[in-house]
Amino acid sequence: MHRHTVLFNFKDEVSPADRDRIVEALRSLKSISVVKDLMLHKNKVPPSPKAPFEWLLVADFANDDDRQIYEKDELHVKVIRGDFVPNVKNYAVADVNY
What we know:
Layout: E1 2-10, H1 16-27, E2 35-42, E3 55-61, H2 64-72, H3 74-87, E4 88-97
Antiparallel strand pairs: 1-3, 1-4, 2-3
């Protein structure tokens, strides 16, 4: 199995309505056929220097090849380029095989 994890924060100027729309767009990535599971939630730990990210996305794949297919999928490219990148101020990504 392969797990893809993204921690992120929205830009301060992104409205609550736009945040909701972007969250739903990110959750729609679960519909990509190679995605085994995907969850996106607000971090329960209050933001601090030791916990600087407000949001967490975790996606599971059968293997790294499937993750690469996911990254090139038309829906993923549209959501990441059109919604995620323009509205996120910072993020961190980690991938592991388990």
